[in-house]
Backbone:
C-alpha cells in the first residue's frame, strides 16, 4: 500500500487540473440555479468520459510513449487536427482559469492591487514553480494542494449540511429552453475536465516513470482511479454546497472575475457564518490555483511535443517557448476581456464539449488497435462503455447544435 501511495502523481495532477472551473464555478452555479437537479448529468458525463481519460495513462505506461506519439502513428492528419484544436482553445482555457484564480486572490488577500496585477502575480508564481522545480516539484506540490482542497471542501459541506434546515429535493431536471441547454452543455464540457487532458495524463505518466521506475501500468491505473474518484466526489460536494447555500437565493452572479469571487465567498460566509471565511477561501483558492498551475504546465508540454513530432526534430518551439507564449497570451486576453469572465468560461466549456467526440474516438481507436499491447487493450466492458460514451458525447453535441 505504501508503494501505491508513493506512486500517486499523474492521477492527482489530473484531479488538480480537473477540479477547477467545472467544480467551483459550474457545479456551484448548477446547485444555485437547479438545486440537485443536475446530479444525473454530473454522474453520467463522468461515467461516459471515464474510459477516454483512463486510456491516457494506460497507453503511456503500456507502450512507453505519449498519446501524441500514438496519434502520429494513426496518421499525421490526426496530430495536425489536434494542433489546430489546441491552438483554438489553450489561450481561452488558460485565461478562464487564471481570471477566476486572480479574482479569488483579490477577494481573499486584498484588492489593494488591481485584478490585472493579481493575474500577472499568479502567472509569475506558477511560472517560477514550473521552470525552477519542473515536474518533480509539481508532483510533490500537487499532493499538498489536493489534500488541502479535499479537507477544506469536506469541512465546508459538513457545516452546510449541519446548518441546513430546509428540505433538499432530489428531483432531477431536464433543461427546457435554449439557455438551460447551453448551461447543461457548458456544465458537462468541463465535467470533470476537457477530454484532451487525457493527453496531459500520458505526458505526466512518462515524466513520472522517469522519476520512479516502479510506475507501471497497474500502478498508473490505480493512481488515475484515485484522482478520478476524487474529482467526482468534490464535484458532488460543490454541487451540494451551491444547493445548500445559494439555491433560490435570487443571487445573480457577475461576469466580472473580482465581483464573482466576492459574491461567491460572501454567499458562503453569509449562510455559514463569518468564521467559515478561511475554510471557504482556502477551498476556493486551492481549487483554482491547482488548475492554473497544472494547465500552465501541461499545455506547453503537449504543444512542444506535437511540434517536435510533426517536424521530426527538437526546435525552438520547446516547453519554455510555449509556456512563455501562453502566459503572455493569457495576460493579453485578460486585459481586453477581463469583464467577460462568464462569456470566456462559457465559450471554453462549450468548445471543450463539442470537440470531445474527436478525442474520444481517437483514444478508443488507438488503445484498441495494434499500437497497444494486447494485454492492455480494453476489456469487453470497457469496449461497451467506450462506444456508449462516444454515442453520448456525439448525441449531446448534436442536441446542443440543433438548439442554436
Residues:
Amino acid at each position: 500500500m505504501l508503494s501505491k501511495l508513493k506512486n500517486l502523481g499523474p492521477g492527482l495532477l489530473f484531479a488538480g487540473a480537473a477540479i477547477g472551473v467545472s467544480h467551483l464555478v459550474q457545479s456551484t452555479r448548477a446547485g444555485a440555479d437547479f438545486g440537485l437537479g443536475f446530479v444525473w448529468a454530473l454522474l453520467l458525463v463522468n461515467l461516459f468520459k471515464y474510459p477516454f481519460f483512463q486510456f491516457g495513462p494506460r497507453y503511456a505506461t503500456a507502450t512507453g510513449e505519449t498519446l501524441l506519439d500514438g496519434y502520429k502513428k494513426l496518421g499525421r492528419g490526426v496530430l495536425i487536427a489536434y494542433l489546430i484544436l489546441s491552438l483554438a482553445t489553450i489561450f481561452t482555457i488558460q485565461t478562464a482559469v487564471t481570471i477566476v484564480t486572480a479574482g479569488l486572490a483579490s477577494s481573499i488577500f486584498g484588492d489593494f492591487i488591481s485584478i490585472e496585477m493579481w493575474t500577472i502575480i499568479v502567472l509569475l508564481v506558477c511560472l517560477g514553480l514550473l521552470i525552477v522545480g519542473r515536474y518533480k516539484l509539481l508532483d510533490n506540490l500537487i499532493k499538498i494542494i489536493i489534500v488541502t482542497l479535499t479537507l477544506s471542501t469536506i469541512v465546508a459541506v459538513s457545516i452546510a449540511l449541519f446548518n441546513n434546515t430546509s428540505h433538499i429535493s432530489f428531483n432531477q431536471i431536464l433543461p427546457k429552453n435554449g439557455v438551460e441547454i447551453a448551461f447543461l452543455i457548458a456544465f458537462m464540457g468541463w465535467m470533470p475536465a476537457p477530454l484532451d487532458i487525457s493527453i496531459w495524463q500520458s505526458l505526466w505518466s512518462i515524466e513520472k516513470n522517469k522519476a520512479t521506475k516502479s510506475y507501471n501500468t497497474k500502478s498508473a491505473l490505480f493512481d488515475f482511479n484515485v484522482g478520478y474518484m476524487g474529482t467526482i466526489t468534490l464535484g458532488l460536494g460543490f454541487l451540494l454546497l451551491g444547493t445548500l447555500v445559494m439555491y433560490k437565493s435570487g443571487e445573480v452572479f457577475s461576469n466580472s472575475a473580482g465581483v464573482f469571487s466576492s459574491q461567491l465567498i460572501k454567499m458562503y460566509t453569509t449562510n455559514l457564518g463569518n468564521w467559515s471565511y478561511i475554510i471557504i477561501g482556502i477551498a476556493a483558492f486551492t481549487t483554482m490555483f491547482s488548475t492554473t498551475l497544472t494547465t500552465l504546465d501541461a499545455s506547453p508540454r503537449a504543444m512542444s511535443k506535437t511540434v517536435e513530432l510533426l517536424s521530426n526534430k527538437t526546435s525552438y518551439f520547446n516547453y519554455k517557448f510555449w509556456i512563455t507564449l501562453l502566459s503572455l497570451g493569457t495576460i493579453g486576453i485578460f486585459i481586453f476581456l477581463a469583464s467577460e469572465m462568464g462569456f470566456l468560461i462559457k465559450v471554453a466549456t462549450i468548445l471543450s464539449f463539442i470537440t470531445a467526440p474527436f478525442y474520444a474516438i481517437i483514444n478508443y481507436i488507438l488503445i484498441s488497435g495494434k499500437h497497444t499491447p494486447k494485454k492492455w487493450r480494453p476489456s469487453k466492458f470497457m469496449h461497451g462503455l467506450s462506444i456508449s460514451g462516444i454515442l453520448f458525447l456525439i448525441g449531446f453535441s448534436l442536441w446542443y447544435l440543433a438548439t442554436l
Observations:
- The chain has a mean pLDDT of 83.
- The chain has one domain: 2-403.
- The CA atoms of residues 131 and 182 lie 38 Å apart.
- The chain has 15 helices and no strands.
